[in-house]
């Protein structure tokens, strides 16, 4: 499985040719200025919550790709208001699992806040566990460290995509504990560097993860890695 990093928390999974995009925020991210949004054409878009830095490019990418958008019920209502057709929206809720052609996706708890860009309530923020053929991947979304993560240990997670920028989410130190909670030795960092409050020291982050015996991947924007 290939993962492409587009900056902030925006990643795309290529699962045997099926493309799944998470939290599309590209055109408003100065660090992602070299990424051509028009070239991104996923089959599915998953949203962890409705803050602008996770949904800014949702509508344009959905329109050009015809992707199906999946998210929590209240955020799904906002997605429909943007003009996404009903048959291209999947709403579900915490604890629910979608059975899709590429695998199963369970919606799990995230400790954060959630509102639309115009200030409306958008439901709970969430994360996702992707159960794929021979691989289990946890996308944490925006979250603080929480004991709820220990419930995920039973899923035998191969890779965890964890926020590491601090200020609005977990920082590096808490992400290391989160990796321990979910019993995962491979982490890809998300939600860092895009804005001054969440800039990190890459070398220091790598050193801390290495000392904890956890592999940390920090791909460049636009770079793809195999997981």
UniProtKB/TrEMBL annotation:
Q: Name one Pfam family in it.
A: Lactamase_B_2
Ranges where the Metallo-beta-lactamase domain occurs: 7-191
Q: Which UniProt keywords apply?
A: Hydrolase
InterPro entries recorded for this chain?
Metallo-B-lactamas, RibonucZ/Hydroxyglut_hydro, UPF0173_UPF0282_UlaG_hydrolase
A molecular function (GO) term: hydrolase activity
The protein's matches in SMART domains, at most eight in alphabetical order, are given as:
Lactamase_B (SM00849)
Q: Coiled-coil intervals in this record?
A: none
Q: Which NCBIfam families match?
A: PRK00685.1 (NF001911)
- Designated name of the protein: Metal-dependent hydrolase
**Organism expressing this protein natively:** Sphingobacterium daejeonense
């Amino acid at each position: 499985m290939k993962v492409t990093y587009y900056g902030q928390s925006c990643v795309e999974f290529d699962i045997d040719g099926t493309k799944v995009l998470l939290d599309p925020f590209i055109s408003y991210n100065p660090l992602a200025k070299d990424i051509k949004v028009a070239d991104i054409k996923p089959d599915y878009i998953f949203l962890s919550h409705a803050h602008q830095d996770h949904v800014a490019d949702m509508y344009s990418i959905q329109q050009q790709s015809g992707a199906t958008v999946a998210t929590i019920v209240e955020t799904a209502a906002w997605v429909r208001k943007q003009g996404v057709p009903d048959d291209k929206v999947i709403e579900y809720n915490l604890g629910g699992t979608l059975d899709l052609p590429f695998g199963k996706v369970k919606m799990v708890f995230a400790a954060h806040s959630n509102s639309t860009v115009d200030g409306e309530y958008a439901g709970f923020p969430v994360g996702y566990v992707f159960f794929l053929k021979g691989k289990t991947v946890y996308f944490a979304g925006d979250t603080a460290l929480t004991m709820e993560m220990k419930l995920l240990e039973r899923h035998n997670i191969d890779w965890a995509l964890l926020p590491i920028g601090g200020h609005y989410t977990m920082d590096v130190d808490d992400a290391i504990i989160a990796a321990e909670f979910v019993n995962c030795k491979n982490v890809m960092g998300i939600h860092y560097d895009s804005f001054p409050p969440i800039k990190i020291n890459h070398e220091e982050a790598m050193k801390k993860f290495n000392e904890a015996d956890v592999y940390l991947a920090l791909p460049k924007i636009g770079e793809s890695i195999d997981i």
